[in-house]
Amino acid sequence: MARKLDDMLERLGKTTSLCDLQKTVFDLRDAYEVEHLVYHSVKSSGAQWAALTYAPEWVDTYVAENFQTIDPVVLSCFRGFRPIDWKTLDWSGRPARTLLGEGLANGLGNQGVSLPIRGPSGQFALFTVNHKTGDDSWGRFIRQNMHDLLLAAHYINERALALEGEGHVPHQSLSPRETDALTLLAAGRSRAQAAERLKISEHTLRVYIESARFKLGALNTTHAVASALSRGLIGL
Fold first, then answer.
1. Which residue pairs from 184-190 have beta carbons closer than 8 angstroms and sit at least 24 positions apart in sequence?
2. Do both 35 and 81 map to the same domain?
3. What is the CATH number of the domain that holds 13?
4. Which residues fall within 8 angstroms of residue 135, CB to CB, at 6 or more apart?
5. pLDDT tens digit string along 78-131?
6. Which among 45, 98, 195, 209 is least buried, having the fewest CB atoms inside 10 angstroms?
7. Is-contact 148 1, C-beta < 8 A?
8. Which neighbouring-strand residues pair with 130?
């Protein structure tokens, strides 16, 4: 795992307030040298909290114009689970074009990727990375950093919920093999590499991963790794 992600995870683990978490989001933006980074959480009760680097003027405009109701990024992420590259969305309608034009005028970059996160009790969050660059450069950035960004997104969500007193209920203990499997994946190993290191088949590895995911209440493998890291169940 990249040193900058190690540093970020360590810093996140030391946050004791939402103010600290907000500062960490700015630090993460600077570490990855991108224009903007956003974490926005909405609970089933409607309560919201965000840590973001957008200009306050743009945030005020977005809220005042109720842009979330027509934002292709929000609508697409709310319907699915996979990361959404903004360039793959339909911006042809007038409301979407207006939103995009005003965003660019207020300092947004032309590239973006947003990761939907679903937490306990109907909580929904978005983690967004935004930048000004060409398509080729952006493609390289995403290929090189998507694993880090997925882990960061879920880790920040876990930390925000914990600081608000709404983290997951106590979990069952992970077995030694489940711990080993998640540790290797967190270190950037592929499933094939992890299975080879543990001297087991990929099928057996999958059983351990799925068992750990169930115990942690995670939606997917990346979420399980982030949850295990945030709770100190695995280390790097």
1. 185/209, 185/221, 185/225, 186/1, 186/151, 186/225, 186/228, 186/229, 186/234, 186/236, 187/1, 187/236, 188/1, 188/147
2. yes
3. 3.30.450.80
4. 87, 111
5. 888 888 999 999 999 999 999 999 999 999 999 999 999 887 778 899 999 999
6. 45
7. yes
8. 36, 112
Residues in the chain: 236
No. of helices (H) and no. of strands (E), the chain: 10, 5
Classify the C-alpha dihedral 103-97-89-227 as positive or negative: positive
Instruction: Write the CB contacts of 176 (distance below 8 Å, at least 6 apart in sequence).
Output: none
- Give the angle 133-6-56 at the CA atoms, nearest 5°: 45
- pLDDT tens-digit map of 54-86: 999 999 999 999 999 999 999 999 888 888 999
Half-sphere exposure of 125 (CA within 13 A, CB side): 27
Structure tokens at 111: 């590239």
Q: What is the pTM of this model?
A: 0.78
Number of domains within the chain = 2
d(CA 148, CA 150): 6
